[in-house]
């Protein structure tokens, strides 16, 4: 319990608004719940959330200590009262989540609270499976990343054992991640392999495809197959043999077939023609095929996980046959 005395600068405020200002990490719905449960007392008694505070009022707050901390990137998860996750699979060590397009995976300078990692932390904290306040606590971590405007399956580790094992399996290519994308035009041949070298411009946050090796450029290989063609667009499935930044987007653009909706590597005029904002790219299927001991990941071996729906498949190829969705 912590006690506060209202001074002249806070007099006249509503109780709930004073609470929001004093404890910015405490979510508003939880604050209202605490008031209803009389865990917030004014002069020793329960109160209403809309009561006006007076100078000299004494407030007793029976609130968890962590909500009194100053907001930081590390404790931003506390402000998420109802984390939103589309969970495909969960066990003691691993969480598979279908990330929606538009959601950034890690906190950055532009977004600290509404990120995939923060939602995962809030989810596990509220389940009492993880807390940064436990001694020697492991912080949940993402094993793979997806661009903000790309959707799809993200692997999160709940334990250090799960993180180490999954990172090794990813390094050893003992899992397959398949993507769906919509491209302008059609590929020739309809099934094949894109190979080149990607050079990343750190200033522009953009990559460029080179045909020959050069300093700073990294090998990029993508296997693809066309699933459907309609109205000047193709639905393509991709298997990333290498996993470079913007690999699919840059390689298809370099081949003359940029992804629909891609404002960085594609054509804004063509995107407007089809009414698409944000690249039509989704990491839709994940298969685990372990060839060595899997340890804590053994329950995942020989299993395939697939998202339920992809918006651009429904929108641009609603009648196509033999689709994976």
3D structure, described in words:
The chain is of the alpha+beta class and 325 residues long. It is 19% helix and 28% strand. The longest helix is centred in the middle third of the chain and has 12 residues, at 160-171. The N and C termini lie far apart (53 Å). Strand 12 and strand 13 form a beta hairpin.
Number of strands: 15
Tell me the span between the first and last alpha carbons.
53 Å
Give the % helix: 10-25%
Order of helices and strands: EHHEEEEEHEEHEEEEEHHEEH
Topology, element by element:
Layout: E1 2-5, H1 15-22, H2 28-36, E2 40-42, E3 45-46, E4 58-61, E5 87-90, E6 94-99, H3 116-126, E7 141-142, E8 151-157, H4 160-171, E9 175-184, E10 191-201, E11 206-210, E12 218-230, E13 233-240, H5 247-254, H6 268-274, E14 281-288, E15 304-306, H7 311-316
């Amino acid at each position: 319990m912590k006690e506060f005395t209202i001074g002249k600068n806070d007099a006249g405020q509503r109780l709930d608004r004073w609470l929001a200002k004093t404890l910015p990490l405490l979510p508003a719905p939880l604050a209202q719940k605490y008031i209803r449960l009389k865990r917030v007392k004014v002069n020793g008694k329960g109160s209403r959330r809309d009561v006006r505070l007076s100078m000299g009022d004494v407030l007793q707050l029976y609130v968890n200590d962590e909500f009194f901390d100053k907001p930081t990137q590390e404790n931003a998860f506390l402000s998420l009262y109802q984390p939103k996750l589309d969970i495909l699979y969960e066990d003691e060590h691993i969480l598979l989540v279908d990330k929606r397009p538009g959601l950034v995976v890690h906190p950055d300078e532009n977004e600290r609270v509404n990120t995939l990692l923060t939602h995962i932390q809030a989810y596990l904290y509220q389940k009492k499976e993880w807390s940064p306040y436990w001694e020697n606590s492991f912080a949940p971590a993402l094993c793979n990343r997806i661009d903000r405007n790309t959707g799809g399956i993200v692997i999160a580790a709940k334990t250090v054992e799960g993180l180490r094992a999954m990172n090794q399996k990813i390094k050893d290519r003992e899992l397959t991640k398949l993507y769906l994308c919509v491209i302008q035009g059609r590929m020739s041949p309809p099934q094949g392999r894109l190979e080149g070298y990607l050079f990343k411009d750190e200033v522009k946050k953009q990559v460029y495809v080179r045909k020959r090796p050069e300093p700073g450029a990294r090998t990029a290989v993508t296997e693809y197959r066309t699933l459907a063609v309609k109205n000047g667009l193709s639905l393509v499935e991709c298997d990333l043999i290498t996993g470079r930044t913007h690999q699919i987007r840059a390689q298809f653009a370099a081949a003359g077939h940029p992804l629909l909706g891609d404002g960085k590597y594609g054509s804004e005029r063509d995107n407007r023609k089809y009414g698409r904002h944000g690249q039509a790219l989704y990491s839709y299927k994940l298969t685990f095929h372990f060839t060595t001991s899997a340890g804590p990941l053994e329950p995942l071996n020989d299993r395939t996980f697939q998202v339920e729906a992809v918006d651009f498949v429904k929108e641009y190829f609603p009648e196509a046959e033999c689709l994976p969705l």
